């Protein structure tokens, strides 16, 4: 698709036509495609960053019901926005999306169609700016994400490192020349993304179903999965964490994470990483004291869960804790905290790992004690 001799240009035109014809017939019916307003496209693109389409769909529908436009999102309570995002992960996306909506409202309520101006808004990088400009406004800018990079690397049998900024820039420039020649930039970008998501799969590309097969050098080489070159895998750090479930008169103590932290603004149980040589129970007693000023007796283990984040994994040990003093305790912390009963707990947004603790047998017993 990327050559510039006469012969290659003709080949490129044929490849684009084949891709667009395939897209017209095979594109998935997705809620944001039926009505691609700038707001809906932006919300969908932000949700789709690092998240699968099937996961995003129910979140998108729920989010749009609660916050149907920039004005309602800008005016919403941030805790309510985080609650709508709960379980989707990468929560800074939600906060930045709301900051973006507030900025848009300050600018008069309309999103610019210019990618350079879009990229100045919170949470909008070059990819999202190009996706919004092309899908919502029909502007000819290529949206280059991981799927597109993979398709491009295979089409050209190019083994350059696609994680390098220079290579991404090169792919962008080449696609910019192509998209400027196409009548429908929105379909062009979405067709490439769709092929990357549905046909040119990372491990098992479905070359037999691919509209680009006749133009694909990786397919012709017989080894499509040799492209793009895979960077060497680094070992994923594994962190041991211990948390305390402190119940008092049927209420559970929870703390809000700082906005500056990962999972910022979400709620959690007091606890933290194990120090070298420390047992999980010892870590709970120490962490609770350091984080809340409370002296507790560490009781039964309620559960041990494992959870994987993008760059590390955790094992979380959760222990029921009893207060050493029978009076209503004074929690000493500079973080917002709450004693929530079982019903109230549902109103707070928690990371997925904490939801796994909620699901442990015996967790809810603490509310009855
Ligand atoms: Fe990917 Fe195969 Fe299509 Fe080439 S022919 S773009 S490797 S699915």
Can you characterise this structure?
By secondary structure, the chain is α+β, with helices and mostly antiparallel strands. It has 2 domains: 6-226, Endonuclease III, domain 1, CATH 1.10.340.30; 238-365, Nucleoside Triphosphate Pyrophosphohydrolase. Helix 1 packs across helix 12 and helix 3 crosses helix 4. Strands 1, 2, 3, 4, 5, 6 and 7 form a 7-stranded mixed beta sheet that branches. The mean pLDDT is 93. The chain contains 17 helices and 7 strands. It has helices at residues 6-26, 31-34, 38-48, 53-66, 70-75, 78-85, 92-106, 115-118, 126-135, 146-155, 165-179, 185-198, 217-221, 280-292, 342-345, 352-358, 365-368, and strands at 238-248, 251-256, 267-268, 271-273, 296-308, 313-323, 337-340. It is 45% helix and 14% strand. Iron/sulfur cluster binds at residues 151, 154-155, 199-200, 205-207, 210, 212-213, 216, 218-219, 224.
Blueprint (SSEs and pairs):
Layout: H1 6-26, H2 31-34, H3 38-48, H4 53-66, H5 70-75, H6 78-85, H7 92-106, H8 115-118, H9 126-135, H10 146-155, H11 165-179, H12 185-198, H13 217-221, E1 238-248, E2 251-256, E3 267-268, E4 271-273, H14 280-292, E5 296-308, E6 313-323, E7 337-340, H15 342-345, H16 352-358, H17 365-368
Parallel strand pairs: 1-6
Antiparallel strand pairs: 1-2, 1-4, 2-3, 2-7, 5-6
Helix pairs in contact: 1-12, 3-4, 3-9, 10-12
The structure holds iron/sulfur cluster.
Iron/sulfur cluster is lined by residues 151, 154-155, 199-200, 205-207, 210, 212-213, 216, 218-219, 224.
């Amino acid at each position: 698709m990327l050559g510039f001799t006469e012969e290659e240009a003709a080949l490129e035109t044929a490849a684009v036509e084949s891709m667009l014809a395939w897209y017209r017939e095979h594109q998935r019916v997705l809620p944001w495609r039926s009505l691609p307003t700038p707001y809906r496209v932006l919300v969908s693109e932000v949700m789709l960053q690092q998240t699968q389409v099937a996961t995003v769909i129910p979140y998108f529908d729920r989010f749009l019901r609660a916050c149907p436009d920039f004005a309602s999102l800008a005016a919403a309570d941030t805790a309510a926005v985080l609650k709508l995002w709960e379980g989707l992960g990468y929560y800074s996306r939600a906060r930045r999306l709301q900051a973006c909506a507030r900025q848009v409202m300050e600018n008069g309520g309309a999103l610019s169609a210019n990618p350079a101006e879009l990229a100045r808004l919170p949470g909008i990088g070059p990819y999202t700016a190009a996706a919004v400009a092309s899908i919502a406004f029909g502007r000819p800018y290529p949206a280059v994400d991981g799927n597109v990079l993979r398709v491009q690397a295979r089409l050209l049998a190019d083994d350059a490192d696609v994680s390098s900024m220079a290579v991404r820039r090169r792919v962008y420039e080449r696609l910019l020349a192509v998209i400027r020649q196409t009548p429908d930039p929105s379909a062009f970008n979405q067709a490439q993304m769709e092929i990357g998501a549905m046909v040119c799969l990372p491990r098992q590309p479905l070359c037999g179903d691919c509209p680009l097969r006749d133009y694909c050098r990786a397919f012709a080489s017989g080894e499509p999965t040799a492209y793009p070159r895979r960077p060497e895998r680094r070992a994923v750090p594994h962190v041991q964490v211990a948390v305390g479930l402190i119940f008092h008169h049927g209420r559970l103590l929870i703390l809000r994470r700082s906005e500056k932290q990962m999972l910022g603004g979400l709620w959690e149980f007091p606890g933290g990483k194990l120090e070298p040589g420390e047992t999980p129970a010892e870590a709970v007693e120490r962490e609770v004291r350091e984080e809340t000023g409370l002296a507790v007796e560490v009781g039964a283990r309620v559960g041990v869960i494992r959870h994987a984040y993008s760059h590390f994994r955790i094992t979380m040990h959760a222990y029921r804790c009893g207060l050493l003093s029978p009076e209503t305790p004074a929690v000493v912390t500079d973080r917002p905290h709450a004693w929530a009963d079982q019903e109230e707990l549902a109103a707070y947004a928690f990371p997925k790992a904490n939801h796994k603790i909620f699901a442990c047998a015996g967790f809810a017993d603490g509310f009855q004690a």
